[in-house]
Fold:
Amino acid sequence: MQRAGVSRLPPLLAYAVAVSNSPAASRDRQSVLNSYRTAGVAAAAAADVAEANPGRDPRGAAFFDVDNTLMKGASIFHFAAGLARRRFFSTAELMGFAAKQLKFVLSGSEDPEDMASATEAALSFVAGRSVRELVDLGQEVFAESLVDKLIPGTLALAQGHLDAGQRVWLVTATPVELATIVSAHLGLTGALGTVSEVVDGIYTGRLVGSPLHGVAKAEAVRALALRENLDLTRCSAYSDSANDIPMLASVGRPIAVNPDSTLRHHAQANDWPVRDFRRRAHVRKAAPAFAAGMGVAAGMSLGYAAGRLARR
Structure:
């Protein structure tokens, strides 16, 4: 329920209101929205099909953003840094990629040129490479670098949904192949991520739609709900960023986790729950609940052990 006298437009939906009504602006706006819709449908299609007997609550599910919600920092940058250490691409290419991604994500821009720049940077290091190579290296990077960055409190929330018989998906702008590595290691149902065009097992350097960012995440959640016969009013979504307000607003139970200031204000205005695990005390409090779980906890423990062994 929204508090009286408070009305906040989601940042990524504000684009549709802020631009002028000129034909050129309308075409750009429609192009962006179509790109988001294409990305969302592609992400849902690329996600692993859930098991035939999904659990005690087959129409309920939970959707978790990754960066600063489930994991400290930007997962795509952690993966990219690990790939650079393996000479998948150069350090200079990594820094150029990081700069463009940072500008795009922090600005929350919906401008087609900004989106194209971020997309080009994201694809430059995989064009001409095989999916198998990226997945194999991604497995190594996860065990080596990402396990220690997982946030126990958020993992406990994911485990709670699994324990309740619900399915749990990650929703992230990270490439779907890498997002799937994270979800598999944590024992989750699957992942919705950015989909790249692949021909004969080789990346072409083009995306299917846009990066799975902002409105595209909401489109992906809706497309997956249709495919899996989910009731979105029974579903939950978790994120730290105001850019994900469209996704949060698409479900019956939105929760702000480690929110930025804009999302915190929006959550308070709309009576959405807020969970903050950034303070050490909160992490300590959440740890027992996390350790008690089997699916996520077991997946994290195995990944952590593998990471330690890989460092020896």
